[in-house]
Specification:
The chain has 209 residues and is of the alpha+beta class. It has one helix spanning 38-78; strands at 2-3, 26-27, 83-86, 90-93, 96-109, 116-131, 137-138, 143-145, 151-153, 170-171, 176-185, 191-195, 203-207. The chain contains one helix and 13 strands; from the N terminus they run E-E-H-E-E-E-E-E-E-E-E-E-E-E. Strands 3-13-12-8-9 form a five-stranded mixed beta sheet, with no helix packed on it. Strands 4-5-6-11 form a four-stranded antiparallel beta sheet, with no helix packed on it.
Amino acid sequence: MFCCNCGAQIDPSGQFCGACGAKREIQPNSAPVAPSKPRRRMVWLFGILAVVVFFIVFALLSSGGNNSSTAGTTSATETPASTVHHMNETVNVGYWSYTVTRVRWGNTMGPSFAPEHADAKFLQVYITIRNNDRTPSTLAPLKLVDPEGREYAESSKGALMRGSFDILKELNPGVTSNGFVLFDVPFGTYQLLLSGGFENSETARVQLE
């Protein structure tokens, strides 16, 4: 005889099932009923599904990272180099116009009673600038570039010289100004790197002669 609750074989003389403790309700000559296991099947199914989802998400993320890297490389490769212009040519870059009129080399610059002495050699670059923006704009710093691609910043020694364009040079819309920027660099051949402005990423170069 078998228990109707769990299917275990029980003693015919007993009142309760020795396996599950259920009250004896027996069916003679009946086969044991195998316990169902739906919960275990569900756990297995959810586990397999989780593994599949994990691999799909991982593959998508890996593909996205590779595409981003490739896009960045393409963008950097396609960025054009700065156009090279000549002296006395008006160059429009961003919201500024530049005309490099002349250059002068020297070991000292400034007034005779308080001259500034170069660490290497002074290069004075005379420029005419114009603000083409709709609002007042401050002139962005200019740089020199040598044939090896090295960049040189303006010299702070020119800040107090009369006629110099310092870092706070500001022009109203449509206003033109003449002055110079001063560099302290080894004697050689350079290009002047022009900026389109603090809010503009355009650049151009002028070959200094």
